[in-house]
Amino acid sequence: MTDPLDLLDVAFLLGQDERDIQRSVRDLLADRARPHIGRWFEQGHFPRDLVPELGALGLLGMHLEGYGCAGTSATAYGLACLELEAVDSGLRSFVSVQGSLSMYSIHRYGSEEQKQQWLPRLAAGEAIGCFGLTEPDFGSDPANMRTRAVREGDGQGDWILDGAKMWITNGGVADVATVWAQTQDGIRGFLVPRGTPGFTTRDIENKQSLRASVTSELAFDGVRLPDRARLPHARGLGAPLSCLNEARFGILFGAVGAARDCLQSALGYADQRVQFGRPISAFQLTQRKLAGMALSLNTAMLLALHLGRLKDAGRIRPEQISAGKLNNVRAAIEIARECRTILGANGVSLEYPPIRHANNLESVLTYEGTEEIHTLVVGQALTGRAAYR
């Protein structure tokens, strides 16, 4: 069967280095993850032993420079995210949080000491990071977060951190958490290592989405931190939001991977499933579904590549990333649901990927900015008027 992304010869737009990176990621996952992902999802298992292999391939913080990072282009990073999410959104979420949230926050806002301490280990997969911004009562409105850090000793002593963060990917397995808190001088970022007294985590159970990923609550009860734990160059809400833009960029490529995997599965199934004496792929209604999804998939891929080129040229704007996430995740979840209908009753089985991708994409639709928030970001760019309140 034809690769759904080959309909418009999208590969022609890629350089050889980009194709090689995409192929190397696909090959690793074909051997180490794809055969097991249905079982991992069903059991709620995160394959931690895969993390050093992702590091050895250069995928962790791959778009960052120095400190053991690969320093690839943004587009190459996006293509890696595509292949990761083609297997499972949980794997892409891990890599996104590790590289675009945890490592990026340290790389951009950290001290040289913090970079040397953490980035090489995170890049190699020897350590895991997480990013604590969302709270139980404040998701889309992080400016009103309740987590606070107060400095002792007339502004010269340690910081005391109190509060909680919720829905934190990697939280329960992270060796270091980037935590954002209100201070007297506005929102600041802190690096909190696992094992710091007063810092605890609790994994969120009974998820029906991103089950092959660790999602946790972080709690801080009188956590004492020296000033060297503070990210010295991060001040105000713009700092964590800039990190989120990095993660959203990976999502708009990753969603294409999930959609491609669903469509490939549906194409193969439709060619083998015989009803009324012929494969269901020979029926007009099935071909209408397949053709419509292929057009939507290729449109999403072309949009992702265009935004990748803009990012590599230093021209991308936040509303463009919002437009990409909004369009591509919406397209992917519609493709996953439509593919499920082609598989009929078999579509609800984890033997086939569409139902798993559809469940995962419900989380992708919500995290790193909900569909509603990204709609308002685009709306503000078009009208010049903020409509969040």
CATH class of the largest domain: Mainly Alpha
Strand % is 5-15%
Using the 3D structure, state the CATH architecture of the largest domain.
Answer: Up-down Bundle
User: CATH-wise, what's the superfamily of the largest domain?
Assistant: Butyryl-CoA Dehydrogenase, subunit A, domain 3
Low-confidence runs of at least 5 consecutive residues? none
Rounded to an integer in angstroms, the radius of gyration calculated over CA atoms is 21 Å
The helicity comes to 40-55%
> What overall form do the CA principal axes indicate?
globular
Specify the structural class.
alpha+beta
CATH-defined topology of the largest domain? Butyryl-CoA Dehydrogenase, subunit A, domain 3
How confident is the prediction overall: mean pLDDT? 96
The strand order across the widest sheet is 2-3-7-6
SS field, number of helical segments: 11
H/E element string? HHHHHHEEEEEEEHEEHHHH
Q: Separation of termini? A: 49 Å
What is the number of strand segments?
A: 9
Family: Belongs to the acyl-CoA dehydrogenase family.
Keywords: FAD, Flavoprotein, Oxidoreductase, Transit peptide
Pfam family, one: Acyl-CoA_dh_N
Protein name: Acyl-CoA dehydrogenase family protein
Structure in words:
The chain is of the alpha+beta class. The chain is globular, with a radius of gyration of 21 Å. The strands form three sheets. The chain has a four-stranded antiparallel β-sheet with strand order 2-3-7-6, with helices on one face. The longest helix is centred in the middle third of the chain and has 35 residues, at 238-272. The protein has eleven helices and nine strands. The N and C termini lie far apart (49 Å). A hairpin with a 2-residue loop joins strand 4 and strand 5. Helix 1 (16-32) packs parallel to helix 4 (74-87) and helix 4 (74-87) packs across helix 7 (238-272). Helices cover 50% and strands 14% of the residues. It has three domains: 4-124, Orthogonal Bundle (Butyryl-Coa Dehydrogenase, subunit A, domain 1), CATH 1.10.540.10; 129-236, Butyryl-CoA Dehydrogenase, subunit A, domain 2; 239-383, Butyryl-CoA Dehydrogenase, subunit A, domain 3 (Up-down Bundle), CATH 1.20.140. The mean pLDDT is 96. It has helices spanning 16-32, 37-43, 51-56, 74-87, 89-109, 112-124, 238-272, 284-312, 318-342, 354-366, 371-383, and strands at 129-132, 148-151, 159-169, 176-183, 186-193, 199-203, 215-225, 274-275, 278-279.
